[in-house]
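Reproducibility note. Readers wishing to regenerate the assembly model reported in the main text can use the exact inputs given here. Chain order matters: entities are listed in the order in which they were concatenated for prediction.
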Amino acid sequence: MNNNIVIAAIGAILLSLPFVGVDSYPLHLIIVILIWSFAYTGWSIMGRFGLVSLGHGAFMAIGGYVTALLWNNVGLTPWIGIPIAMALSGVVAVIIGYPCFRFRIVGHYFALVTLALSEVVRQVIIATRDTTGGSLGYTPERHGEGWSILAIQSDDRVAFYYIALAVWAVGIVIWKAVDRSMARYALEAIWEDEDASAAVGVRVTHEKLKVTVLSAVMTAFAGAMYCQYQMFISPDTIGGVGISLQIVFAVVVGGIYNALGPTVGAVITLLLAEVLRIGIGTENICITDKICLNAAGVPLLIYGVMLVMFIIFLPKGIVGGVLDRWRGPAQTGPSKQP
Amino acid sequence: MLTLSQVNAGYGDFQALFDVSLDVRSGEAVAVIGPNGAGKSTLMRVISGMIPAFGGSITMQDVSVLDTPAHQIVGMGIAHVPENRRLFARMTVEDNLRMGCFSPQFRDRYTERLEFVYQLFPRMRERRDQMAGTMSGGEQQMCAIGRALMSDPKILIMDEPSAGLAPVIVQQVFELIERIRGEGLTVLIVEQNVKQVLKVVDRAYILEAGTIRMEGTATELLESADIQKAFMGM
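Running the prediction on these inputs yields the following structure tokens for the assembly.
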């Protein structure tokens, strides 16, 4: 009951945000955070069961590029393009996931296979630069001025804010639904002991595949929404190893075992990135004539240090850590590190 | 009820079981005993569908077990208590038991089966919210047996229930087995602890180097000079 009041209060604040005079720039940040939160939530749906994927940048890129390419080249509306991109992403997840799960490629080895996927998709985008624009990026064609429902495009940030808010809320609902399902028990059991799970009647490969496809499809959707909002995508902004690692990092920071963990992770990492970008800029910092540090690399350095600190001191992330303090030390729960 | 005939099995080029035939009749408790490396664990794995057989047949009430995928075997009424218990250590006792009736066809009987297990093992009710991995070895074995009983099996297959437990606890585990027999369940036990196990079963097979060397009633085997010499150090 208490929880419901809190949720209602947060909901009311979020819904009324554009009316209380939030400027365009903070609103932009919030929209980006909401879209990324959805991607992070999608990742954590499988990540929380020890299925650490370093390939979600690939799913995000598939979501964005397939939708945009279909729109520009075939004139297919994103209303159909996005489902196609999501389906394709699901197929890729099966192609990668099935052999891994069937032949018990787990833990670090699974992470490595998915890491390769990130890079393969990025390389494909770069190699087909005539179609995709390569590393220079890609822009969906504008459909008229202002609003276009057909193209899911809008100049109006407020409208996009509500779309992003709805998307984010759906992500939380999906997370909760998985959390309450029998699949959750199955996946926790699989994480602990695949043989024992199979012995009690869990279809190990099947359960893992289901959650992987769900996660991949969600991430592809996030990629497509990001593209629709930013109207620009490049292999480095929604794909590749960099994005895959950013997803893992944000979720570890926020908290992998709570519905709101990935969102908190998104708030922290994206605000941190903004602060660093504005604070340090992208100038070269030169110590001598020859030794120059490109400031663009500083955020990565800070991310790296923070990631190590979090894994050591707050393995359940900020949300998990705070909840543990609040409920007292008696609380037990999954404490495996991702 | 459960019949193995001429089962050959192993890993890759290595054959661990040679023409093993045995059967367990309804209501009976049967043991397979033998030294380390005799193929006992391979036998368990082949029955539970974890490894394929090279040849032969395994049937449960005239339905072939060998063609059934691992996750469906529990649905045939065969429940497994794996070696070293294999509990889900970071899940609570109650969640472990819940996993025991994970298969959709058992789920609606969850409450009823949970009550049955709690009646049989009141200790598990006391420990219901504890992490399974934090219990003592004997309690874990109780939980593992409870988990297997959740699916209301026709036959319970136990792989070395006494392995890795202190002698006092081993005693308790065999008492548990007697209690389960009291419920009229059919049991197949694989054990190294020959002396103890022969006290709780009706019949036993001696497995040595992958073949059945001898079979008989528990009393016959207990009195057999060969067995006493080979397994009990008498």
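We highlight two features of this model. Strands of chain A lie at 284-286, 292-294. The first strand of chain A starts at residue 284 and ends at 286.
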